[in-house]
Description:
The complex is a heterodimer.
Chain A: H1 18-43, H2 57-66, E1 77-79, H3 85-90, H4 96-102, E2 127-128, H5 136-151, E3 157-162, H6 169-178, E4 187-193, H7 212-216, E5 222-226, H8 230-247, E6 251-256, H9 278-288, H10 294-316
Parallel strand pairs in A: 1-2, 1-3, 3-4, 4-6, 5-6
Helix pairs in contact in A: 1-2, 1-9, 1-10, 2-8, 5-6
Chain B: H1 4-18, E1 23-26, E2 46-48, H2 53-65, E3 70-73, H3 84-96, E4 106-111, H4 126-129, E5 136-138, H5 143-153, E6 160-165, H6 184-191, E7 219-222, E8 227-231, H7 235-248, E9 253-257, E10 260-262, H8 266-276, E11 279-286, H9 291-303, E12 312-316, H10 326-332, H11 336-348
Parallel strand pairs in B: 1-2, 1-3, 3-4, 4-6, 5-6, 8-9, 8-11, 11-12
Antiparallel strand pairs in B: 5-10, 7-9
Amino acid sequence: MSRPRLIKEASAPLQLEKELLLRIHDLMVKTRALEERLIQMYKQGHGYFWIGGPGEEAFNVPLGMLMKVGQGPDYDYLHAHYRQSGTILAFGEEPIGALRQMKNTATDPYSGGRNFAGHFSLKKYNVAPVSSPIEVQYAVAPGTAMVQKRHGGDGITIVTGGDAGTAEGDFASCLVWSTRPANPLPILIIVTNNKWGISTAGDDQHGEKHIADRAKAFGIPAKTINGNDPIESYNELKTAMEYVRKERKPYFIEAMVSRLYGHSSASGANLVGNEVDCLKQFEERLEQEGHMTRQQMDELRNRYTEDMAAAARQVRDEPQPSPDSIWKHIYAEDK
Amino acid sequence: MANMAQAIRMALHYAEENLGVTDIFGEDVGMPLGGVFTCTQGLKTTWNSPLDERGIIGAAMGIAMGGGRPVAEIQFCDYVYNTIDLLKLAGNTCWSTNGDWNMPMVVRTPVGSGIRGSIYHSHSFDATMTHIPGWKVVMPSTPLDAYGLLITACKEQNPVMFLEPKALLRVKGEERIPGEPDDDRQLSKMIDAPLGDRTQWKAQWPALQEYAVPFGKGKLVREGNQVTVVSYGRTLPLCAKAAATLADEGISTEVIDLRSLWPYDWEMIKASVQKTGRVLFVNEDTEVTNFGEHLMRRTVEELFYSLLAAPKLLAGKFIPGIGLADSLEMASVPQQNDITDAIRKLAAEQP
Ligand SMILES: Cc1ncc(C[n+]2csc(CCOP(=O)(O)OP(=O)(O)O)c2C)c(N)n1
């Protein structure tokens, strides 16, 4: 072994084609640059609250890349968590939308200035609205999966959420409703485990060894994976999604991920030193194996950082929603 | 004439045949029982859900988002309380996404007293439900209105809470549902599941016609010019009866069946109060922070100078539950005598 092994668990050669590796990397960098810009906006007073997913790119980006994106039951439904900008960018959303939501402008494409950062909603891409109450999406997701099962085709439902939230009954509901013998559902159930509630350590709270073990009790194939490794994430998600698409039955993934900037602006939104940085780790491997040079990676990072800064400047001048717009869209006929 | 349970069943049949209803579900909603109040017997899209109210509301939301049209049932409204945050979510989805998503879903649940249901099968839900924006909330008091309101509910693009006064589910109507046969026994043979083995049974549906009661339109049940009474659900027929009794005493009472709580027919209430100058709101939810209090507040703010007496609310007592003993239930929610007395007193009150 001539090359130094910098990272133990990530030392196997990168198994994906170069083009794919570069796409994953590109999206991870773009997502990171977006999230860092969002944090900066918050800190400069251009937003009231930040929550997002820096540290989860290695999992969220492959997820978005593998989704069948479109509207209606032929395509995949995503019942997302609030840390999934990487997933949204991976299927082609422009980052400026997230900045607009942070600045709560009238142009915010996800909520018109009504909701927090990271609370995406895209009916045209089957992205169910992200909602602040933890875990409710696990109760809702079986519904879209039921429609898809009846509809036929290979569209699936994907639901994601945090580890602490699995204490909510909705998580149990999801396992129960997805595995009724009368109608097992095409649903990929995901828990991104960063080992924390806001400040409450998972070790204090979870009696079960792996959250994935709870799925096993329902006969759901379940895996705990390293969500900090984009290659492992990509391959495991691909296997899982192929299974769900074909078998029309649930599959469970618990992805171990980092929480690089803490819980949210509520806990300061500062870089946490002792978490694995999935992007840094991936870049070391890309460099080691000769896929990219450090200089190329730096250039990419700088370019995205500048793009986000320019977008943030643009967003700053955009109008706030008008006060009388509070009466709009209470009901659908107002559309 | 059909009773309200049969009317609901017929509306659901009409809706699954003609309005695209895809899923009628909830605890024991499918065969063999067809609902603990038999409202869903013989329908083709029914299925039994797990005993999980959060799962039921969540699934209804997901089905609606996926392009289906669900009608979910919560077995008793007393059990809908543990879904309150999901009801909030369903109600705010259109607004919070700036109109991106909507939720065409109906939730049906039996409400109120009248079957000696004790502490957990007697509650009302109108005050809580009308507190959650984004929903439309209706409560019929006759089989025909139940039929017509449910048909409108199944055409809505928004979440609808359909409250079924359980005391009235077995009461036959005075008006015929369009398409229902003349003979009640014949109707029962056609659409009521037999006792015992039901595996081979299929409903024989009459040729039903569409009849939609629009939301937000009350019904003038009785005209009068001295006192206005506004009610809905179980207490409505009691109000009508009280008005008839008092007519013999020379008191002229106007009775409004609100039918639709949100949106509601303010124009009808307003016109009536401007005519009579006296108004009594009657329902059986607990009296503190009651929906009738909202109506009173609006009456005071907008119609103060038309009033000849202070507006009144007759509602359920503010106690933690309804006790099983007959005497306890009767003392807890408005009964016939309470209503008659309240109207009589209001009619006699002088400024
Ligand atoms: C029902 C509910 N209770 C409490 C909160 C406040 N809250 C927001 S995030 C959070 C911790 C969530 O932890 P986890 O599910 O592990 O997700 P993570 O944020 O770590 O990704 C809490 C308690 C909430 N949003 N919803």
